[in-house]
Amino acid sequence: MNKQCAAAALMAFTALMSIPAWAVREELNFEVFLTIPSRAFYVIPAESDWIHRPQRLLWDYNTSTLRGLRKSFDVRHDSSAIEARLESTGRLSNGRLGEEILLHVKFNGVVLSADVRPREVLSQAEAAVGKRVLLEIDPIKPLGGFKPGDYDGTVMLLFNAKAPGS
């Protein structure tokens, strides 16, 4: 009986192996792109996959605080320092008056504001060789604390090359 079972199993295995296997083909198409910055002046995110998407600030349940955002940028300018400022005050809003959350924005450790006079964020010496610097956006806790709700906002940074001799 064991010989008959073994013979039947061997014949079944042989029959299965003789059936041509159907090949499965899978194709994946994706786009590839890059930007090669000019050597004269650039301020670009070190990781390019986040800059055009909304960024979620995370709520820390243990401490009842809102966490900030940290992202690196590669910056360079071959002939002068680099300055920056905010287009407008950074803030998050839920649409209700008095419940805005202001944002503290720093670039390379320099606090930025919406003042029309930009602040130097890289010296001429640092900018000439290029550097990777940190963008920090931290929520400022309102006087009455953080109020529940869905918030959104925009932080717009403006960079320029400092005028020589200024």
Walk me through this protein's architecture.
The chain has 166 residues and is an alpha+beta fold. It is 14% helix and 32% strand. Strands 1, 4, 6, 7, 8 and 10 form a 6-stranded antiparallel sheet that branches. It is flat. The mean pLDDT is 86.
Outline:
The protein has 166 residues and is α+β, with helices and mostly antiparallel strands. Helix content is 14%, strand content 32%.
Task: Jot down its keywords.
alpha+beta, flat, 166 residues, three-stranded antiparallel β-sheet
The ordered string of helix (H) and strand (E) elements is HEEEEEEEEEHEE
Kindly state the percentage of residues in helix.
Answer: 10-25%
Whole-number average pLDDT? 86
Number of strands: 11
How would a crystallographer describe the biggest sheet? 6 strands, antiparallel
Broad shape: flat
**Strand-pairing-aware structural class:** alpha+beta
Calculate Rg over CA atoms.
29 Å
- How many distinct helices? 2
Low-confidence stretches: none
- How far do the termini sit from each other? 100 Å
Share of β-strand residues: 25-35%
